[in-house]
Amino acid sequence: MRSPVYEPLAVDDPRQIGGYRIAARLGAGGMGRVYLGLTQSGRRLAIKVIRPEFADDPEFRRRFAQEVTAAQRVQSLYTAPVIDADLNGPEPWLATAHIAGPSLGTVLFESGPLPVDTVRTLAAGIAEALQAIHRAGVVHRDLKPSNVLLAADGPRVIDFGIARAADATPLTRTGGAIGSPQFMAPEQVLGHSSTPALDVFAFGSLVHCAATGQSPFGQGPAQAVMYRITTEEPHLDGCPPELRPLVAQCLAKDPAERPTTAQIIADLTDSPDPVTSAWLPEAIVTSLAPYDQVPTPPPPSPPFATTVPPTIGLPPAPGTPTPPPPHGQAWPSSPTAAPPAQRGNSPALMILAAAAGVLVVLLAVILAVVLSSGDDETPSRDIAQSPSTAPPQAQQPTAETTGPQEGSSEPSTTSTPAPDAGPDNGVKPPGTFLDEYKGIGITGGYGITFLDDPKRPKEGDSGDFDFYFDGSYLWGDNFAYIDVSAKGDYNTCHDTTLYEGHAMSSPGAGSRLCVYTAEGLLGIVKIKSLDSSHLVIDLQVWQGPADR
């Protein structure tokens, strides 16, 4: 059964993780990919598999283990409890109870701001979740709409504590930030210590966003938003009057001036359980039904040991079918000739056999001649080579196309020395302009590969440049912003040193980025438009320098 809200598995997705059957994809982000898993009894789990880039870092594993252990102590009606985890495998994973509902981010994107009464109930549930998280000694550090799920019986806060584990990896130590800019606290932006008050600030931004559909600190490039968070007061003009005083207190620059979660709960409700069965608008309640339609898991892959490896030694008898390779592998195979329909010594067959023998001898003679002509010590011809007055080809300057300059659609040409002669490996000299693409659309969870056809994004996160559904992260090998006053060309990207590791919070429309890939290519990306689920870019691709 195919679900309208769950993404089907791709060919390379696992069919089983830790003994749990995998039924579908739930999403992807900067930390990894999330799957819908099923226990033997049919209970649904959300299983997050951590990216290899994080899993390879010992400090991440150490902190991840600490945070998972702490998260298991969190007990609240408004969190997704941790059910299972594998902290020591090649790809660590964490399983929590699956929540049958969309994220707050999805609802805001599809339906707009929520009614005030719904926001108050939502806020009370989130405040209770934060209270339980803080009691367990955990600070969420990445509270945002995509980390709040909406179910019929109340909201659920997910992914608490994982951001702290990622904060220790080289991917973030090199300049990238963990946390979504619109929901970061000033002390988080400035790199100060994290306390529960950090989550209260994010809570205030989230409540404002749920009620208005906007961040209290506006939109734009991450640096601009973070600057406003640390230096400017929030813009609360559109916030409903019933919520504005609480939001303003939560967004105080000084952490000591923000309310505690207990004070927030007391301000929002007089009931010990603030959530009622009719807390969501009817349109959203109706949209929850497909989340209960669990897709049927695909059949399990056959065990690796049951497949037959390729035969080494004597070939199979004529007409014997070639055994299939193990799942996920492909072996080169040559067709086995079928036995002839008749056997006999007819004249036609004898003539064909003789002709074949002559052809074999001829081929052998030709091969011997070719091989002997390639021997440097044996003259292959008697015609003398006339000396050339031109310098060797490797020393001649070559014209190099450097791509369109700023403000021009035509490539410019500069003269650069050619590299020393050597085997042709298909790699262009550094600075060579390769191609340009206009108006590439990338849906969340898809990416493009510069070596391939960038106009056709592929599902998954293995491309040179990826954009994730929650609109919070871009993913590539190395990012750097191009200053507004600088030219968007190869030299600008080559000279800058302000690269941000592998993950970057989504920049605003009009931003320009330099992106280096592991294959040695340089992409210059211009953001044309961006929302929470779709990105449109222009792209120039260059051959990058050898020293990157």
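The record above closes out task 2.4. Task 2.5 opens with a second protein, given below.
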Amino acid sequence: MATLTLTNRKPQLFTCLACQIAFYSAELQRDHYATDWHRYNLKRKVAELPPITSEVFAQKLIDQQAQSQSDAEKASFRAECYVCSKTYYSENAYANHLQSNKHKLAEAKGINQVKKYTLNNNRSETASSKPAPRASENKSSDEIAEISADMEEMSVIDKKIANAVKLEEEDCLFCAEKSASFDENMEHMTKVHSLFIPEIEYLTDLRGLIKYLGEKITVGNICLYCNGRGKSWKSLEAVRKHMLDKGHCSIAYDRDEDIMEISDYYDFTSSYSDDHSKVYVDNSELVLPSGARIGHRSLRLYYKQNLRPREERDSVIINRLLTHYTDNFGYQHNSGGIMIVRDETTRMSRVERFADQKSRAEFTARIGIKGNRLQKHYRPQIL
């Protein structure tokens, strides 16, 4: 009697699709959702940008803090030229003034014997005056350009999110209908637009899923069914019209990336098997040390079969092919078996069948248009 023992399953991983990382516990996953790194990657995902790693995000924070500090120091810059009796609030303007002929001429004449410049840094109330650091001493030109690009990218994302239409729980995803409650809105989308939530028995956050789908439509202008694989749209009205015209009022759930995208709102742990150490016994056959297999007596009917070897001669194969064509496709061959001629009656019968199917389809479409019953099959769903 042969036995089979199953090994232990691999530990379950809790994933974050926005950051493309995995955790060994749900608590770590929930803590990760509250971090600035996760929120930053969510904004990048809405803007159709790839996620960044935690190291890159930390470096961006350091660069942004340094840039903010440098901007604050530049904003507090104040220099006075007592020779010319002028005050400057820009380091470049002050440097250009010192190199000007007018300043050099006034200094040479000794109109006022004062210091060339005084730098007042007002970063704090108790701080003493000291020269403001130059940008070249802190950051190279490449780093400054990178920081500027990142800040511009963040501003574009924030601007797009701020200008996007905000859908409430009572707003329909596919039309301008506004229901009295969230439950009525779900009933409206289910009955009118045939919205079907996949794997609803494992769904744990329906409101969060609907909110995420709404952000995809309003902010990203993405069709829920095409899911970014089709044409891009520029407005909420355009993507809604596309989904209604094409019948795409459904959630993409065919590919692995589609399933993983909304997996954060599901919990499939109840479907996992807990019998990791169960032993399964196979009573159908016995394997001897020599390698021979002894079958169970209940299957002796199959073991006693004596199948003839398949004929592989060319003449037999040719006759088999001729028989296949004449029996299934309406061909005929002469007595010598040389020429194969198509049976005209069979061809005509196939044409007639095609014409009959076409007329039936046209009749069904005509009746559907008159009765307004072209909506796809309605699948009732208990929420």
